[in-house]
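Observation: inputs received (chain + S-adenosylmethionine).
Thought: call the complex predictor directly.
Action: predict_structure
Action Input:
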Amino acid sequence: MEPGPHISRLRLMGYGTSRGNALGALITDNTLEGAAPLIDPFGRAITYLRVSVTDRCDFRCVYCMAEDMTFLPKQDLLTLEELDRLCTAFVERGVRKLRITGGEPLVRRNIISLFEALGRHLESGALEELTLTTNGSQLGRFAVALKAAGVRRVNVSLDTLDPQKFRAITRWGDFDKVMAGIRAAQRAGLAVKLNAVALKGVNEDEIPEMLRFAHGEGMDLTLIETMPLGDIDGDRTDQYLPLSLVRARLAEDFTLTDIPYKTGGPARYVEVAETGGRLGFITPLTHNFCESCNRVRLTCTGTLFMCLGQEDAADLRTPLRASEGNERLSRAIDEAISRKPKGHDFVIDRRTKTPAVSRHMSVTGG
Ligand code: SAM
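Observation:
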């Protein structure tokens, strides 16, 4: 056990809240007294952690994964208790927003118990938001439990409203099940935002319809440019659709007004006068948003990526497992943040055949 100025104590899960939880395991609650906030070399405060809890997914979206993926052996994954401890270490260092993602986070066994455990940081006020990105396939089962755990908003990835096209994009997905999941989330009182990757020749003609649908159902819609992450079966140049073009086309039919609305992520929003709803643009290619980056990403094996678009990473699993206290871990987090790069440099063109980074989005999480 490592000595240090931290208080380390073991206690049974439950965290003194009225909510039960199913982790049912011993958890180390390590509180690092007076821990300094995380500030990177460019003066950006790191207040947002995205956590990929599994690299597995029940879909195989064509721009995200190859059909025949090799996933991590289950024994390489951090346990839910370890993920809780890591997230908690970040919360103690000033992280205010946690997004659980994947792979598909809701296919990880017992995942609700992680949400329930992390909910204690919402109750204490240490955390502002606990949320997730999901493909929606499991929301019918879990929406009520997520709401009870303290989740208020979910992002659901949906690239089309056409069931056949949906099947073609996701390779395996069931459109009706996702729609039922979205409805279940809304019934449970969760605010739903739809995320759609803009794909040339696939859903580009559907974007106005998706906008009307989302806003008609009280949901925000965010469009995302496809990023060069990981080998897929096709050529990304065929899929890439610059959002500057999409926006210009939409402006022919809709009145788009820039608004300062922020959710803590990289999207820039407009208000659409005709629908009264909000439309977000995530533009890693046409407009790099790195200058305001407040995020780092943790994989399910405890690797921290300081930038989605760079290879550099830090191993947090070793310091996590080396000691019950959080001092080593906290030092490793500091060291990692001191290496956070200024930004990514994604390129998608016909000359650039290899992806900017070799890992798939499902590893680092969207
Ligand atoms: N399974 C969950 C889901 O579908 O939302 C969470 C993980 S998924 C990797 C997160 C988001 O990343 C999805 O909205 C997906 O469309 C997006 N995504 C995956 N690969 C991408 C890529 N190469 N470029 C842009 N977005 C991508």
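Thought: report the result.
Final Answer: The pocket of S-adenosylmethionine is lined by residues 57, 61, 63-64, 101-102, 104, 133-135, 157, 195, 197, 224, 226-227, 229, 361-362, 365-366 (CB under 6 Å). The chain is about 30% helix and 20% strand.
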